[in-house]
From TrEMBL:
Domain Glucosamine/galactosamine-6-phosphate isomerase: 5-228
Organism placement in taxonomy: Bacteria, Pseudomonadati, Bacteroidota, Cytophagia, Cytophagales
Protein's UniProt name: Glucosamine-6-phosphate deaminase
Amino acid sequence: QIYANAKDASAAVAKEIADLIRSKQKEGKPCVLGLATGSSPKTVYAQLIKMHREEGLSFKNVISFNLDEYYPMQPDSIHSYVRFMREQLFDHVDIPQENYFIPDGTVPATMIADFAHRYDNKINAMGGIDFQLLGIGGNGHIGFNEPGSLINSRTRLMTLDHSTRAAAAMEFGGLHQVPKKAITMGVASIINAKRVVLLAWGERKAPMIKAAVEGPVTELVPASYLQAHPNVAFFVDERAANDL
Ligand code: GLP
């Protein structure tokens, strides 16, 4: 789906999410969202907050699972994805605090595998993810599934690529401040979602959008795994679609 700009594309994505939340409400069911961080989803979250304020869109039946968190990371750090999600969405809507889950950047190293297993189990216990929102890294990663991630990978600890840490260096005030690891939902955890929507804005995403959409399905470009998904859409602006 190619839009003139990020704002128009984000409005369309937010509408899709709102429609899903409302239809689940009508059925008296929870709506399970897989949510992403990074700059790309910010405009979608802003639009959802607007719909909450202006149209009374309620998030009371929303259960959400975030893709990833840096490791180690304290939830109250300005760099945490917990903080990001609260600032960008959760604190501005009526989602109950016990309804959102974000990988815990404070679990002791020896407990990560167990934590990750429980995270996947919790998603499964909710009946899986209805709608998964994604961004794409400059190296083709989804969540923090770096190149080399396997299609059957589950939630786990990942060592971040140099390019991923370099992209975050400014935010953290220098490369040496960027955590070397992250806990991320796996590729399988992501592609098991019933619907997947990937967002990409701007020229710098154009080569990876081309590789993910038109290139071979390869572990070298984890976003290319989405080609096999029966219900996936890439919402991009014209600049990110430039190489297609
Ligand atoms: C980080 C996140 C990804 C995100 C990527 C791209 O690596 N873990 O989930 O997709 O950044 O970020 P942006 O949307 O800012 O380009």
